[in-house]
Design brief:
The protein is of the alpha+beta class. It is built from seven helices and four strands; from the N terminus they run αααααββααββ. A hairpin with a 3-residue loop joins strand 1 and strand 2. Helix 3 runs antiparallel to helix 4, helix 3 packs across helix 6 and helix 6 runs antiparallel to helix 7. The two termini are 33 Å apart.
Length: 196
């Protein structure tokens, strides 16, 4: 995400100030990583690339740009949804065109579930439906740790944007998330008729 963050900051604040903020952001991420030295390598990679950049930027915008919490939240939302999730959606659209996309997607989900980034309980696993609950989530835990649980809701909504890329082949449903106060994130994917 580093190129996207740099682009976002340049787009929002101009080249000079955007570059300054990007340098500060990289330092803040490195400093925050010191809090996670005992985590697994997979968790560290996820924290560095996917979670801590948004959290660090959230606080950096408030401290360095003197933005209100609400304005900083709005910019993080814009970054994650318009710069991050939209690009992921495009990748999922390409994946949806691959034969056996549903089977491949399920396999990828199962592999990710073993990474330790989430604690997952599979509810249903058939040739047409795949449903699971995330009982613990690194995004949720990290947002709570850094006292910005509101950011977790942005991450959760990013899932919904990304999975729109799969709509041709499968339906995605979720009625609750840890980030919105639920006891789990209840994911469900259903393969559409007529696709292998």
């Amino acid at each position: 995400m580093s190129k996207l963050q740099n682009q976002f900051l340049t787009d929002q604040f101009g080249f000079k100030r955007g570059s300054e903020l990007y340098s500060l952001l990289k330092r803040a991420i490195d400093k925050n990583m010191e809090n996670h030295i005992s985590e697994s390598e997979k968790k560290k990679k996820t924290l560095r690339k996917m979670i801590l950049p948004s959290i660090a930027l959230y606080y950096l915008l408030q401290q360095e740009q003197h933005l209100t919490r609400e304005k900083a939240y709005s910019l993080i939302q814009k970054f994650l949804w318009e710069y991050g999730a939209v690009r992921a959606k495009e990748l999922y659209q390409k994946m949806a065109d691959v034969p056996f996309a549903f089977t491949l997607f399920k396999s990828a989900c199962k592999m990710n579930a073993k990474s330790g980034v989430w604690k997952v309980n599979t509810r249903q696993d058939t040739s047409r439906e795949f449903a699971f609950d995330i009982k613990e989530c690194l995004w949720h835990n990290t947002c709570s740790y850094y006292r910005c649980p509101e950011l977790c809701q942005i991450f959760c909504r990013s899932d919904e944007i990304m999975y729109q890329g799969l709509e041709r082949r499968m339906l995605f449903a979720r009625s609750k998330t840890l980030g919105s106060g639920g006891d789990c994130c209840d994911f469900k994917f259903v393969k559409k008729e007529g696709f292998n």
